[in-house]
Amino acid sequence: MLLSVSDLAVARGGVTVLEGMTFGVAAGQALILRGPNGAGKTTLLRTLAGLQPAVAGAVSVPPEAMAYAAHADGIKAVLTVAENLEFWAAVHGTRGIGAALEAMDLVGLRNRRGAHLSAGQKRRLGLARLLVTGRPVWLLDEPTVSLDVASVALFAGVVRGHLAGGGAALIATHVDLGLGEAVVLDLSAFKARAAAGTGAFDEAFG
Ligand SMILES: Nc1ncnc2c1ncn2[C@@H]1O[C@H](COP(=O)(O)OP(=O)(O)OP(=O)(O)O)[C@@H](O)[C@H]1O
C-alpha cells in the first residue's frame, strides 16, 4: 500500500466527525470519497495533509508525501501563471514547469497574472501545481469545480497519468472522472457517535 490509514478519527470544530477509519490506497489506485455534504470529506483530507491533527489513529506516510488541492487554489495574484508554478517548484525542490503547463492547457496563459485568470483557469493552475510537487499521493477536494467539460477530461487524463506512473489519489468528488479502476469509500460507515446530536452530523446523515 502506498498509503495506509488505521483507526483514524478526525474532528472539526472540536467535534469528532469520523472515527474508526481503516483503509489503504495502493500505487496506481484512486479512492473516491463519498458522503453527503458535511460528512467530513474535507476534514479527512485536511487531516491527511497535515493541516490539522488527527484525534486518534495512524497514517503510514507523512504529510510531506502528499499534495493537497483544496477548494481555494492558493494562487498568488501578482505572479504570472508560469511564476506561480516556478514558485511552487522551488518550494517543493523540483525543476521544470513545462509538463505541468502543457498538461493543464496553460501554455497560452503562461504570462497572465493570477489576478486576471477566470475561475476555471485558476482551477487549472491549482491542479497543474500537483504535477510540480513531485509527490506520490494526491489529495483532491472537489477538483473539478469551475472546470468546463473539456477541462474535466483534461484533468481526468492527468490523474490517470499520475496513477499509471505509480502514484495514488484520494478524491472527494461528485463528478465521474472516468477512472475505471477507482474504489469508492463511503464515509457514512465511519460516522462518529460523538457527532450524533451535536448538529455537526444531523444535517448530513439525519
Ligand atoms: N469550525 C467548525 N465548527 C463546528 N463544526 C464545523 C466546523 N467546520 C466544519 N464543521 C462541521 O464539520 C462537518 C464536516 O465538514 P466537512 O467540510 O469536512 O464536510 P464535507 O464532507 O467536506 O462537506 P461538503 O461535501 O459540503 O464539502 C460538517 O457537519 C460541518 O458543518
Automatic annotation (TrEMBL):
Keyword Membrane among record annotations: yes
**What residue range is the signal peptide?**
none
> Tell me, which GO biological process terms does this entry list?
cytochrome complex assembly
Using the record's annotation, list all stretches that form the ABC transporter domain.
3-204
Q: What keywords sit in the KW lines?
A: ATP-binding, Cytochrome c-type biogenesis, Membrane, Nucleotide-binding, Translocase, Transport
**Gene Ontology molecular functions:** ATP binding; ATP hydrolysis activity; transmembrane transporter activity
Quote the NCBIfam families the UniProt record gives.
Answer: ccmA
Name of the protein described by the UniProt record: Heme ABC exporter ATP-binding protein CcmA
- Gene that this sequence comes from: ccmA
